[in-house]
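Dear colleague,

As promised, here are the two records you asked about, laid out in our usual form so they can be pasted straight into your sheet.

NAME FIELD: protein one
SEQUENCE, THEN STRUCTURE:
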Amino acid sequence: MTLFLVSMAGALGCIVRYLLEYLARSRHPTSRPWATVAANALGCGVAGWASYRLTGVLDTNLRTVVITGFCGGLTTFSSAFAIPAILAREHHVKYSIALVAMTPVLCIVAFVVGVNLGH
């Protein structure tokens, strides 16, 4: 059931992101990057709320639906902040700091590798 709910929440997040992009493009074509920034900021805010408010045992699946599903569909960045926040809240501060420090580095390396795969 959780998989289904994550899928539906992800679809909803994708729709919200599309609507933000559509509205930005229809009003001013060059403002599209700001729709991406807005979607990422909104998703990070929702993920932050879910990380710290949905902390009970019964809320774990709901937190997964909100963060992995909705925020994952909406953003490109929310889980990158939510997971370290959850780890820090659960007293795994070293892992939290490592994730925050290593994620951008690993993403840059993966991007460069991806760019060079076809050469």
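NAME FIELD: protein two
SEQUENCE, THEN STRUCTURE:
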Amino acid sequence: MTDTSLHKSGFLWTQVARDNIGIVVPVVSVLAAFSIGMIAIVAMGVPLGDALLAFWKGAFGSAYAISASLNRAVVLGLVGIGFVITMRAGLTNVGGEGQIAIGGMTATAFCLVPGMETLPLGLSFILPMLAGAFAGGLWGAIAGVLKVRSGTNEVISTLLLSFIAIWLLYWSVQSENLLRQPMTSSATLPESLSIPAATQVPLLTGSYASPVTWGLPIMVVLALLVALILSRSLFGFRLGAVGHNPVASARAGIPVGLTITLALFIGGALGGLAGALMLQGEQYSLKAGFSSGYGFDGLVVGLLARGSVVGVIAGALLFGFMRSGGISMEMIATVPSALVGIIQGIIVVMIAGAAYYLDRETTR
């Protein structure tokens, strides 16, 4: 075989690999990461069968377990979709954790407004959800304004805003002047009052034996809407243009500053909505640390999706069920739930490495 033939065959292999990277690489990465995780379990001295059975029970073992996993996937999916929107504009929103916190705080405050539970037509839970989403959007837009006005890197600003939001959450549940429930004794927990039943997001099944909330169809509808906007709308075109070349976009008359701010507002709004759904659909009272790292896991989901909304849903389902299984393994088989985080990290590194290699090959 001549050098030219070798070069052509190598190019064709690279092209085929790039065309299928969205399917092959994630599957291989997940299988490899789980294999490494099983080796780690054996190294800990835990019977592999017991650990896998505990994982299965936590993720798929009952209608309740599946429902809890799906509810977790909804939160991760919303944050991931927001990340994809900002990534299309060439931005990196790492502030999902703070946006969830702000959304949860705002939704709680609205749920506890006197008379909110008496509103008709579902407004009693819809208005707090929308308020949480809007607050998360404003929190994300702060980073957009800082970038447009002073050139502040959005990675730094969204990350630091997350720390501020987390401490605001802590303050709100520690102060009776804010959201903390009235203290009746020294044993009163630092958390808000439970939200009224009418302000809770309804269950799809109507039964707490399978507590999937209406957050699931809301996330699916928003995913379809975002996919349509990114591929078919003028706003989606503007996002892509700004992401590829903001200078040329400005010369073409595209409002670059407004587009950047809107992208971060929408990304933040989806994070805020995730926080509202966590509070109104699962936890029902606000506690410090209620977001439990969902913002950072949602960021990973968005990274793995590589700009694909379908990829976000797949990644959110994977990580949602993994999180449930990891909690069960820790409770039943004494396997640290941190192992799930290690597996997630391995998946990210493998996919990022494969993407970098293929990108380098095509530029030769």
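A couple of things worth noting about protein two: The chain has a mean pLDDT of 86. The chain is about 75% helix and 0% strand.

Best,
R.
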